[in-house]
Amino acid sequence: MAGNRQVDVVVIGAGAAGLMCAATAGYQGHRVLLLDHANKPGKKILMSGGGRCNFTNLNTTPEHFVSANPHFCKSALKRYSPWHFVDLVERHGVEHVEKAPGQLFCADSAKDVLRVLLTECEWAGAQVQLNTSIRRVSYKDPGFELVTSEGTVACRKLVVATGGLSIPTMGATGFGYQLADQFGLKVYPTRAGLVPFTLQPSDKDWLAALSGISTEVVAQAGGARFAEPLLITHRGLSGPAMLQVSSFWQPGQSVHVDWLPAVADPRAALIDERQQHPNRSLERWLRQYFSQRLAAALVAQFGWQGNLQQFSNDRLGDVAATLKGWQFKPSGTEGYRTAEVTLGGVDTDAISSRDFQVKEVPGLHFIGEVLDVTGQLGGFNFQWAWASGWCTGMAL
Ligand code: FDA
Question: Which residues cross the membrane (predicted)?
Answer without folding.
Answer: none
